[in-house]
Amino acid sequence: MAAILTQPGANLPPIRTYPDKFAGQVVLITGAAQGIGEATAELFAAQGASLALIDKNDHLLNTTHQVTSAVAAVLAAHSQIDISVHLAGAYPLIPLLSATLTDFHTQMNTNMLSAFLLTRAVLPGMQQRGYGRIINTASEAATRPEVGLAIYGAAKGAVAAFTRATALEAGPGVTANYVSPSLIATKQTLEDPDPARKKIFDMCVGRQCVKRWGLAGDVARTVCWIAGPETEFVTGQGFDVGGGTLFT
């Protein structure tokens, strides 16, 4: 079955961006080399942001030294970090009884520990300046479990709880929120010749209110809205980006 990239019957007006919305702001994005991270970086760039891009090929962000060094390098180059978008993560399918302690620690480090370390590194500067946006990535797997994602769902549930707690301590002008994507089609997925993968997406579409595949741009636009100065009164919140899956 062909990829469903537009919802039948929908008649949407053009999506508009503003080339100077994030002018003068520095956006740090992890997991920026491909997929959702790449789409998010491109959308911020199109709206005038200065970007600091990190990917696991360069920084795993699993140790205090790695995070401190990465954030210090950004501050040395730009003097500030206004928006931190943590999109790096990993989600291997591992049945619970096949999972090892190594699998558990890898998932927790990649998804949760990295969020903790990055937040701890960027928050002081945001508090000092009186402005900042911290955006983490949870997952629908935290609230709608799937077979093989027990550890991943637990790690992402921890990210959600951690982000809400961060909002309590963030301080004036600084917000902390998270996005929870469902299964998202990326360039790699769309080019995958394996028909089994497309069947999984089509199954997801069947559960959604919005009858099309989720795209990286859907998450990127949500992140950019959360990151705007107009969302000062929105913090400690999770934003489901899944076409209404959790309602069905």
TrEMBL record:
Record keywords, A-Z? NADP, Oxidoreductase
Q: Which SUPFAM superfamilies does its entry note?
A: NAD(P)-binding Rossmann-fold domains (SSF51735)
GO terms, molecular function: oxidoreductase activity
Q: Is the keyword NADP in the record? A: yes
Is Protein biosynthesis included in the keywords of this UniProt record? no
Recorded hits in Pfam families, A to Z, give: adh_short_C2
Q: Which domain of life is it from?
A: Eukaryota
Q: Which InterPro entries match?
A: NAD(P)-bd_dom_sf, Sc_DH/Rdtase_CS, SDR_fam
Q: Into which family does the record put it?
A: Belongs to the short-chain dehydrogenases/reductases (SDR) family.
Q: What is this protein called?
A: 3-oxoacyl-[acyl-carrier protein] reductase
